[in-house]
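Entry for adenosine monophosphate complex. Fields follow.
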Amino acid sequence: MLSTGPRGTKDILPDVSGYWQYVENEARNICSLYGYREIRTPVFEHTELFLRGIGETTDIVEKEMYTFKDRGERSITLRPENTAAVVRAYLEHKLYADTPPAKLFYIGPMFRYDRPQAGRYRQFHQFGIEAIGSKGPAIDAEIILLATQFLKKLGLDDLVLQINSVGCPECRPKYRVVLQDFLRDKLTNFCKDCQSRFDRNPMRILDCKNEKCGALSQGAPQMSDCLCEECDTHFNHLKELLTAANIDFTINPRLVRGLDYYTKTAFEIQYAPLGAQSAVCGGGRYDGLISECGGQPTPAIGFAIGMERVLLALEKQQLLPSIGHHMNVFVMPIGTQAQALAFKLLCNIRQAGHTADMDFMERSLKAQMKLANKYSAKFAVIIGDDEVATGKVLLKDMKTGEQQHIMVEELLNKLDAEVEE
Ligand code: AMP
């Protein structure tokens, strides 16, 4: 057991972490382009926050949370998503006192006791944004645009954006009744989960992944037919804004977020080549959540993008940049006497801002040359007994093979000039 990590977790090894940094940098860049600033909240919170902030009838809360008692007997949960925590921080630190909307983003690990498979893990990472304080559809369009622009900038085409409106506490109860009327006679044929959703959360039946349930709910009445005037106008404006911004979308009436505090816009971005786990981004409006968490009624919207899925997609499409392990300078001490001078030079070279490394394993000159080539070093600095005695080192241009003896004092100037070139 000690030789493997827990099921559903992954080590991000040095050969791969560069890809993560690349995607994270793109996320940070687009957020700064759109005026979203980073927020970092703890990876664990009081369990109560998620019971309220996600909803007690959701799969996440019912089946997937890592919940435990800490040594002070408090119930703690590793965050399964980050919207509730961001809302908690927004209220705790009175971010509402700043000019609204609060535009926030985060990147970090989330934890869900899911059934691990390709694209589905127990520890996974999300890049998410939350815009708190604006009720107009323009902010909905902005964040949808941000998500699609981010994915496109990485090179992912053929993305499918699905949108829907899930209504609000005014129109949804009416829809709920109509939907329950439609489902009631067939209920015993649905899966156990759907049967238990019927009273608590019937809209979730519409997005059940079980094929049989999908077939049974075909022809169900749609939320869009029951939207109140405000929700209908909001949805129409959003569609207009997306069209004006040249964003393709399809309307998926089965896309739901079936809790009272999720309102109006719901959206998802699918990337079909990922197969079963094709959703790369999920988001929506949650106008009721901030008051549910104890704040003044405040409209808000956000999304979360699964980083692992984005990286899988990039790998599949061969869109990952080539990221090597480069060092500009490789310092090669030959013999123990040369070690001290080599180490001192290495420190100076690094201090001057050149990426540099040296041999720490007492390798032969030949083996050190091989290593310098592996790092694609531009220069090798070779130091043997003679060099220690004369105060000159041998500088080798690894590309041309030219070498020259140079005074230690001049080495940095020379490197500055050559590397710049
Ligand atoms: P959700 O909060 O469930 O809407 O998830 C938002 C996004 O996070 C999804 O579209 C996925 O890309 C990603 N995601 C959710 N759950 C997992 C998981 N268990 N493993 C990997 N990625 C996930």
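NOTE: The chain has a mean pLDDT of 94.
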